[in-house]
């Protein structure tokens, strides 16, 4: 099937061609005719399958027909998605596919000023892409007239439920016209999603690609069994290999992300971080610079990385093993997108073994165990996670717990700028262990020099980077996960025709 056969307006076909798409993906081939016919859809598709185009292209076709009839006026489409990154990405896609049409869109999300968003809502936009929290805030202030709305899209509905957005979504939908088309997409089909379907949709057609949420076939998956205290050094050991070009690293917590980011930066790896404690501008900047190739590594939490589409990610590294199999599928779906090849590497500590076997039964296969060539599994830790945690705890307690300020950073060669030493009086067993580990490294010449004799305690060489709290109205909540039926795409479902896989409306093409 070709995009021509789907009956799109010629201006949309031109934009699709510019994006380098040759044939529709299965979810597109199935969903587009149903959406063009004006029917409601519940689309079950894993990430990276082309579902954004599956709902945006029919919407744009509908608006192009209104333009022809001189009837395009007011907000016609509302798309709700769970995270700011996804909202920005969807709106970016829309701009690309609508580049030959006089259609205006706006991205609405928290963490930035409301004013330009409110003003865009007042001054004639046709498509609004929004996170639920900020959308509701603006609606409560009477911004946005949705009386002319034709289409509502709920993207990644499962995630929005997990994040506790259901009450906001219900309130938003109450103020929309009842007569509308509702398209809902979810990676999994659960009872809760079916509940939403009954509540908000009218005789929806289910479009399901495959049965299980298996990772794309283009991704090679490996397990690295490693003790917890060697995770940092293993990561560094791998990342400096030439094949590690554009690497996305997942850590479980915001502090974990900062710790790993700091560690890599200290060893000269160009690294950006993404998590919900960073301001919206910092997040947008980190993602933009990572996409532009200014950083080799992006370290992120699950929530922040949800939905991000960066071309040519060569490796996804699960530095911390994902808390549940669904997160694993989403994480590794960040590589191997649109038929590109990619590796997914997961560090597994002895404590993670149960989760690994859960994952293996979820995806129905056992993952390949790999050893990093040339890595000393018996070597000393570069700096163990526990020690990093201790540093963080100490930072949180404030400077009075530091008996002495760190010595000047410039005295220490940058590659060795790991820890510095100050004289302390506490000769706890813990301190003695750390001191002996550090001295071992000093003997090896892998750390900066000690400044003093006697019992030592060590503190980080750099002060904690200030973590700005976002003022946004979004809630990135920790999630109580449920096990739900997964979905799998059939193998080899991407077009074999040589399309421009980097040719979406995103990134360097635009
Ligand atoms: P999504 O699942 O919407 O995040 O899309 C994943 C990636 O597939 C994006 O980079 C899209 O630009 C790309 N893509 C979408 N549709 C097609 C298509 N028909 N052919 C090739 N690539 C596509």
Topology:
Elements: H1 10-19, H2 26-36, E1 41-44, H3 51-68, E2 77-80, H4 84-97, E3 105-108, H5 115-122, E4 127-130, H6 132-140, E5 151-154, H7 157-162, H8 166-174, E6 181-186, H9 191-200, E7 205-208, E8 219-225, H10 231-239, E9 247-250, H11 254-266, E10 271-274, H12 280-291, E11 297-300, H13 302-305, E12 315-318, H14 325-332, E13 342-348, H15 353-363, E14 368-370, H16 385-397, E15 419-423, H17 429-444, E16 456-460
Parallel strand pairs: 1-6, 1-7, 2-4, 2-5, 3-4, 5-6, 8-13, 8-14, 9-11, 9-12, 10-11, 12-13
Antiparallel strand pairs: 15-16
Helix pairs in contact: 2-3, 3-4, 6-8
The structure holds adenosine monophosphate.
Question: Which CATH class of the largest domain?
Answer: Alpha Beta
Stretches where pLDDT is under 50 for at least 5 consecutive residues are: 398-510
CATH architecture assignment of the largest domain: 3-Layer(aba) Sandwich
* Strand order across the largest sheet: 3-4-2-5-6-1-7
Number of domains: 3
CATH level 4 superfamily of the largest domain:
P-loop containing nucleotide triphosphate hydrolases
* Counted beta strands: 16
Radius of gyration: 25 Å
Q: Which ligands, by name, code or SMILES, are bound? A: adenosine monophosphate
Total helix count? 17
Shape: globular
CATH topology of the largest domain: Rossmann fold
């Amino acid at each position: 099937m070709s995009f021509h056969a789907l009956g799109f307006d010629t201006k949309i076909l031109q934009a699709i061609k510019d994006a380098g798409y040759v044939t529709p993906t299965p979810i597109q081939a199935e969903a587009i005719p149903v959406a063009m016919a004006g029917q409601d859809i519940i689309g079950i598709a894993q990430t990276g399958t082309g579902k954004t185009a599956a709902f945006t292209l029919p919407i744009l076709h509908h608006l192009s027909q209104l333009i022809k009839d001189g009837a395009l006026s007011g907000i016609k489409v509302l798309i709700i998605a769970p995270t700011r990154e996804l909202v920005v990405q969807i709106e970016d896609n829309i701009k690309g596919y609508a580049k030959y049409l006089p259609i205006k869109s706006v991205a609405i999300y928290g963490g930035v000023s409301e004013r330009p968003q409110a003003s865009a809502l007042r001054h004639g936009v046709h498509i609004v892409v929004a996170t639920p929290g900020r959308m509701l805030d603006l609606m409560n202030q009477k911004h946005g007239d949705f009386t002319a709305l034709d289409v509502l899209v709920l993207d990644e509905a499962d995630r929005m439920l997990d994040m506790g957005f259901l009450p906001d979504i219900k309130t938003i939908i109450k103020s929309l016209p009842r007569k509308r088309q509702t398209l809902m997409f979810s990676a999994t089909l659960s009872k809760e999603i079916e509940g939403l379907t009954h509540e908000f949709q009218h005789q929806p057609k289910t479009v399901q690609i495959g049965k299980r949420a298996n990772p794309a076939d283009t991704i090679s998956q490996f397990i690295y069994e490693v003790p917890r205290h060697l995770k940092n050094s293993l990561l560094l050991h791998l990342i400096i290999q030439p094949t590690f070009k554009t690497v996305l690293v997942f850590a479980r917590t915001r502090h974990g992300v900062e710790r790993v980011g700091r560690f890599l930066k200290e060893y000269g790896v160009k690294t950006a971080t993404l998590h919900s404690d960073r301001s919206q501008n910092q997040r947008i900047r980190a993602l933009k610079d990572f996409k532009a190739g200014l950083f080799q590594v992006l370290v992120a939490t699950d929530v922040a990385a949800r939905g991000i589409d960066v071309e040519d990610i060569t490796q996804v590294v699960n530095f911390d093993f994902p808390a549940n199999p669904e997160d694993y599928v989403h994480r590794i779906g960040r590589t191997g997108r649109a038929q590109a090849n990619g590796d997914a590497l997961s560090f597994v500590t002895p404590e993670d073994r149960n989760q690994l076997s859960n994952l293996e039964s979820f995806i129905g296969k056992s993952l390949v165990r790999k050893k990093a060539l040339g890595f000393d599994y018996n070597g000393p830790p570069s700096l163990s996670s526990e020690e990093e945690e201790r540093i963080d705890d100490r930072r949180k307690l404030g400077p009075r717990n530091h008996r002495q300020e760190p010595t000047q950073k410039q005295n220490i060669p940058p590659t060795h700028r790991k820890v510095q030493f100050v004289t302390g009086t506490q000769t706890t067993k813990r301190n003695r262990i750390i001191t002996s580990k550090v001295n071992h490294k000093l003997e090896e010449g892998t750390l900066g020099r000690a400044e003093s004799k006697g019992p030592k305690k060590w503190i980080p060489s750099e002060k904690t980077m200030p973590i700005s709290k976002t003022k946004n109205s979004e809630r990135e909540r920790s999630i109580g996960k449920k096990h739900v039926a997964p979905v799998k795409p059939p193998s080899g479902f991407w077009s074999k025709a040589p399309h421009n896989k980097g040719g979406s409306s995103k990134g360097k093409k635009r």
